[in-house]
Amino acid sequence: MKKTSVILAMPPIFSIYQVIAENLRFHGFEVVELIYEEKKFVYISLWQRLKKLYYRNLLRQREYKKEQLFKPYYADFMRKLNSIEGKADYCLMIWPGVFPSSFMQQLRDKSRLMVHYNWETLEFLEHEFYKIRYFDKFMFFDPYDMGKRPEYADKLVPTTSFWFDCYPIEKTVSGSLFFIGSHAKQRIDDIRLFYQVAQEIRLPIDFHIGAKQPEIAKQELGLEGVHYFSFDEALPYKENLKMVQRASILVDFLNNKHYGLSLRVFEAIGYDKKLITTNDTVVHYDFYRPSNIFVWDGKNIEALKVFMQQPYEPLPPELKEKYSFSNWLRFAFDIEPHQAITLPKLPER
């Protein structure tokens, strides 16, 4: 019997594609991986720069650079697509901006259902909206994006992220408060304040912060005891999951670019972990339990101490299943049975 086929098209961001592909295969899909990272375009001559201006400004070909960067990969990717008998059942794409429109059309022609997902706001993706025509579903995760861009209402689907449910759960627990994330100026104050408070009340901290230049991140944060690492040295996402499982409590700092819930929130659901977060929108979701999730506002230290003493409240199995990758896939691909995953309507900020 022929397996249901999925084209996975995305950049290699922190090797999360490996985990997505493994989970797809675990759930019975045949996966064709098209993993591509768009490099910075470097002009090798004045003629090439003039040629680009000619194509973009006179011929209105806005993707001239993108096409040139993609050209070395095109033959191999087309070989993989042509190896699929007939059409793939599904195409799951994350971050459509890396692929030129000409290749997006090839994916569209080769897929019965084409789905997009991303961890950014619709506003951030504004310059990529001309590609929405290729998708059957353009899924987004920020509740504040609901109702925006009504001209695309037939394609825009609000949904959350997920936790990966194909891996065995590790039982060894370190007892630490675990955070791993990228250095971002907009959350320096939140990270620094929480770290200092956690030290003062003697909480075990295990913080890992990635940056293009780790020494600058260390200087800007001014925190000793944090493990700073360069993006080139970043562990694959699968290794991060092992660190998550060994932690007692996960810590999550809002990026302020959006209010969508991070993967860390769903890792907490899947691995039965308590969570401390600065994203106060989490209280509007159906899985929120005050004994499991603490919203840190920078001042509620006594409440934090109480939270640390509270036992974890197990979630109903059907709620954990709802936010699993297996259910997310069935929802995204319209495969029955599935639980619909929606976003809450939030009060105006």
Question: Can you walk me through this structure?
Answer:
There is one protein chain. With 349 residues, the chain is of the alpha/beta class. It folds into 2 domains: 4-162 and 324-332, Rossmann fold; 177-315, Glycogen Phosphorylase B (Rossmann fold). The chain has 11 helices and 12 strands. It has helices spanning 16-26, 46-58, 64-82, 101-110, 188-200, 214-221, 237-246, 263-270, 301-309, 317-322, 325-332, and strands at 4-10, 29-35, 88-94, 111-117, 137-140, 156-158, 177-182, 205-211, 227-230, 249-252, 274-277, 293-295. Strand 10, helix 8 and strand 11 form a beta-alpha-beta unit. Helix 3 (64-82) packs parallel to helix 4 (101-110). It starts with a strand and ends in a 17-residue tail after the last helix. 32% of the residues are buried. It comes from Simonsiella muelleri ATCC 29453. This is Glycosyl transferase family 1 domain-containing protein.
* N-to-C SSE string, H for helix and E for strand: EHEHHEHEEEEHEHEHEHEEHHH
User: What is the total number of structural domains?
Assistant: 2
Count of strand segments: 12
Spatial ordering of strands, largest sheet:
2-1-3-4-5-6
Helix content: 25-40%
User: What structural class is derived from the secondary structure elements?
Assistant: alpha/beta
What is the overall silhouette? globular
Average pLDDT value?
90
- Specify the CATH class of the largest domain: Alpha Beta
* Count, helices: 11
